[in-house]
């Protein structure tokens, strides 16, 4: 504990790091405060009462979106869309970069190209908001706060009127743009990746309530709740291993230099050893996101069918239930397929082999060029399969622990996209803080002059 307190003091003593942390926390407070501001024409007290009555029905895509937005989605907040339109736009631009030559050229243009890609992503975010905002307001009237179901007291204005729809669409788009701006400011002037931190904070906002519900539902005097906490910590450690696990491919770089005197010259060959780190989970959370997008289709199709009692409708209802075994099996297959697909399109083994050959690097025992590309592809395939199985385990773990008696609200923190995002963001932020601490320690040694005796 003493060492932890001293580390906090060291962090606070660095002016630049202190200012970055203050700015980051300030934006996070603003973001959380904005998630409680309702749209004009919405009675926040009535919304709170309805949410308390509907707290057990948050599943599927609605529960996921609500989790990512820190509850703003269900509260009819001005930040209800959150940062998700920007995430969708980023994914679209990333996938288009594989097929559109113009985007491929921008990706190779360095900082100027990245700025143009960022600008394209921003405009695409607004375009997505133009579609999602009216869809959200329609969903608000039909499912979240059903206007025709007798809950008229939640609306101070007619939700179908011009004076509710148009201002609400403008406010929702503005809320997403403002959230996107805060995320970019945190990245530029704060600490960590701003967009990811906003998502993580939204996810963590539901954790205290989930823990409280689990504790209140425990009938064993706290023993089962303690086992739940221990299990959650074990799962978090497994996620850390999954995020950081790499396969190191040894690489040897050969350098040639000229040495000698005025009477003769001779060639000197020097070798430098390095390695290529191939991540076991190179695709991150993208396979889970893609698989979830596919799994949301059954629920959408079932809602359009009039006969809700037919056998195939009942089957699709089970598939849409994130805690059913049918959902887990299909979900697992999709994750494995998307893991191999996304890894194949994001890890260019041919380009890596060409770069090694151009820079004088070789993998010991492997010929440069095509043989190197085939070797890297073979290694990548071998580590991707166990990585995909581990990703499947993390993804379906909420359903498994729910079958063991863990409350659904807490079970969602045992795996899936939420847990992987939290672990990855926390590790990245801690690494950046450690970098500042190490740099400060190095500057301190230089300023005191104690490094003069170092050989």
UniProtKB/TrEMBL annotation:
Alphabetical list of PANTHER family matching this protein: SECY/SEC61-ALPHA FAMILY MEMBER
Keywords in alphabetical order: Cell membrane, Membrane, Protein transport, Translocation, Transmembrane, Transmembrane helix, Transport
Transmembrane segments: 21-39, 78-103, 123-142, 162-183, 190-211, 223-246, 284-305, 325-349, 383-405, 411-430
Any one Gene Ontology cellular component term annotated for this protein: plasma membrane
Highest taxon above the source species: Bacteria
Family note: Belongs to the SecY/SEC61-alpha family.
Single GO biological process annotation from the record: protein transport by the Sec complex
Stated role: The central subunit of the protein translocation channel SecYEG. Consists of two halves formed by TMs 1-5 and 6-10. These two domains form a lateral gate at the front which open onto the bilayer between TMs 2 and 7, and are clamped together by SecE at the back. The channel is closed by both a pore ring composed of hydrophobic SecY resides and a short helix (helix 2A) on the extracellular side of the membrane which forms a plug. The plug probably moves laterally to allow the channel to open. The ring and the pore may move independently.
Major location category of this protein: membrane
Record membrane topology: Multi-pass membrane protein
Quaternary structure note: Component of the Sec protein translocase complex. Heterotrimer consisting of SecY, SecE and SecG subunits. The heterotrimers can form oligomers, although 1 heterotrimer is thought to be able to translocate proteins. Interacts with the ribosome. Interacts with SecDF, and other proteins may be involved. Interacts with SecA.
Pfam families assigned: SecY (PF00344)
Record-given protein name: Protein translocase subunit SecY
Location relative to the cell: Cell membrane; Membrane
């Amino acid at each position: 504990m003493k060492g932890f307190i001293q580390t906090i003091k060291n962090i606070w003593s660095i002016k630049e790091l202190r200012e970055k942390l203050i700015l980051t926390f300030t934006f996070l407070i603003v973001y959380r405060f904005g998630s409680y501001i309702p749209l004009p024409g919405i009675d926040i007290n009535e919304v709170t009462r309805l949410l308390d009555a509907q707290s057990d029905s948050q599943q599927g895509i609605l529960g996921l979106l609500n989790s990512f937005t820190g509850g703003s989605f269900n509260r009819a907040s001005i930040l209800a869309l959150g940062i998700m339109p920007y995430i969708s736009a980023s994914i679209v631009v990333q996938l288009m970069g594989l097929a559109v030559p113009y985007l491929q050229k921008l990706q190779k243009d360095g900082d100027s190209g990245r700025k143009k890609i960022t600008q394209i992503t921003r405009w695409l975010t607004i375009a997505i908001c133009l579609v999602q905002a009216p869809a959200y307001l329609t969903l608000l009237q039909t499912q979240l706060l059903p206007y025709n179901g007798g809950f008229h007291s939640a609306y101070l204005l007619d939700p179908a009127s011009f004076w509710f729809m148009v201002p609400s669409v403008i406010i929702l788009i503005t809320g997403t743009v403002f959230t996107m701006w805060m995320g970019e400011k945190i990245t530029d002037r704060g600490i960590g990746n701003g967009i990811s931190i906003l998502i993580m904070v939204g996810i963590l906002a539901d954790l205290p309530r989930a823990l409280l519900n689990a504790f209140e539902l425990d009938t064993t005097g706290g023993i089962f709740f303690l086992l739940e906490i221990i299990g959650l910590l074990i799962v978090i450690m497994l996620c850390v291993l999954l995020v950081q696990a790499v396969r190191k491919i040894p690489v040897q770089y050969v350098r040639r230099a000229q040495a000698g005197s005025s009477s003769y010259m001779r060639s000197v060959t020097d070798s430098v050893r390095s390695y290529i780190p191939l991540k076991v989970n190179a695709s991150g959370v993208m396979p889970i996101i893609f698989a979830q997008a596919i799994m949301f289709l059954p629920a959408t199709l079932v809602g359009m069918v009039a006969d809700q009692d037919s056998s195939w409708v009942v089957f699709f209802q089970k598939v849409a239930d994130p805690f059913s075994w049918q959902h887990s099996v299909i979900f697992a297959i999709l994750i494995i397929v998307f893991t191999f697909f996304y890894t194949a399109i994001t890890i260019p083994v041919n380009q890596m082999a060409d770069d090694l050959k151009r820079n004088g690097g070789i993998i010991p025992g492997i010929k440069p060029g095509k043989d190197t590309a085939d070797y890297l592809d073979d290694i990548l395939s071998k580590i991707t399969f166990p990585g995909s199985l581990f990703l499947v385990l993390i993804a379906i773990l909420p359903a498994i622990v729910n079958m063991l008696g863990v409350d659904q609200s807490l079970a969602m923190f045992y795996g899936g996209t939420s847990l992987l995002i939290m672990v990855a963001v926390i590790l990245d932020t801690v690494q950046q803080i450690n970098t500042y601490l190490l740099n400060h320690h190095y500057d301190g040694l230089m300023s005191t002059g104690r490094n003069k005796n170092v050989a």
